[in-house]
Amino acid sequence: MDFTVRPVRPEEYERAGQLVAEAYLADGLLTFGEDDTYVHELRDVRRRAAAERAEVLVAVEGDARAVGGEVLGSVTFVTAGSPFAELSGPGEGEFRMLAVAREARGRGVGEALVRACLDRSRELGAHRVVLSSTPDMATAHRLYERLGFVRTPARDWLPLPDLPLWAFVADL
After folding, report:
1. In which region does residue 56 sit, left (phi positive, over 0), alpha (psi from -120 to 50) or beta (all else)?
2. Distance between CA atoms of 136 and 112, rounded to whole angstroms?
3. Mind listing the domains of the chain with CATH numbers?
4. Contact call for residues 99 and 74 (beta carbons, < 8 A)
5. Which of 4, 32, 39, 114 is most open to solvent, judged by the fewest CB atoms within 10 Å of its CB?
6. Distance of alpha carbon 51 from its chain centroid, rounded?
7. Residue 125 above 90 pLDDT?
8. Consecutive H or E run containing 144
9. Would you give the end-to-end CA distance of the chain in angstroms?
């Protein structure tokens, strides 16, 4: 593996946020434009990294000690009670805003970020990890299922009238 997953550093906030917003917009995961409130939330890594019960992890080129390595991907890991938690309840970890730079796809970056969230959940004593995904994210769904997540329709939800989110759950 030619990259490392670790907590985001302050000097990487802007690039990590930009990467997530660009990925969501370029992949057509958002039906609204650049100025939408959610796009601003995707970009605001500083706020997520400072939030209680939230951690932003990044995959960066090279090893963990490297300074200035290129940010290849990012994910926000949360636990129940975090202002960024959507589905997680007591004893559950959750991840959101997973994105991999287009030029880094196919290198295992997304899988490494998800595995880091699973590991972090175990470290915290969680018994389950949950996530939400749009129905059209078939590539992500295959990754989640390969890593032990099960589609859980009973936990599906609608943050907006035209935006269904599917739930996936992995028991640890």
Report:
1. beta
2. 22
3. 3-171 (3.40.630.30)
4. yes
5. 32
6. 15
7. yes
8. helix 138-146
9. 24
